[in-house]
Every structure is written in structure tokens, then in C-alpha cells.
Amino acid sequence: MPHFIIECSQDILQQRAPDEIMDVVYNAAESTGLFAVNDIKVRLQPYQYYRLGEGKKNFLHVFGYIMQGRSTEQKAVLSKKISTGLTELLPDTSFLSVNISEFEAATYSNKALINPENTHHNHHFGL
Question: Within 10 A of 40 (CB to CB), how many other CB atoms are there?
């Protein structure tokens, strides 16, 4: 946790390498101090087929999924840092946006949480 999924039009990857784009998101998330460095996960999915409004050529959207418990202000800072960094990297992108959503702790599960030895319900148990 957290997960950042970048969706973009294929042509974005002709402007910048995937690692450059993912590094901007990773570094922005890391710079907030909200997450353990080893917990941040970023992945990128380009789309070959998409439809945009008239005169619009491409898009990039980041879906950020984080564990509940951060303030609205903290989430807004995270969103702004990501969008600012990506806008600097890709200034001519027609649509560039970021959305931060929360996982509900009560319904979240992972490999660590289901481990019977994890009696303290540590999300990072065994990592």
C-alpha cells in the first residue's frame, strides 16, 4: 500500500520512457512522508484504443489507492505533487489528472494479514 496506477494513451510513451513517468509518481508519493518507501507501488498501463473530445490528442490519469486514515489536506497535497510533477514532465498532454481514493481498513486484506502467525494484524508482517 499505496498503489498508483497510471493509465495513459500509447503516444505518451513516445514522449517519455515509462520509468521516467513512474519515477515522478513514486518520488512524489515518497516526498509526502505518508508512506513507507518500500510500500509504494506504481504501475503503468498504456492504451492503444481510446476516444477523446474534439481536438484532444492524448491523456494521462493516475488512480491512487491508499489506506484510509489520511486527512483531506494530505490527500490533496499528494494529488497536487503528482499532477505538478507529471505536468512538468509532460506539458503538452491534453488531459492530465490524478484521483486519490481510500481502501477501507475493515475490508482490506493481504497476504500478511491472513498469516496465522501475524497476531498483531501488521500489514507488513513477513516482508
Answer: 19
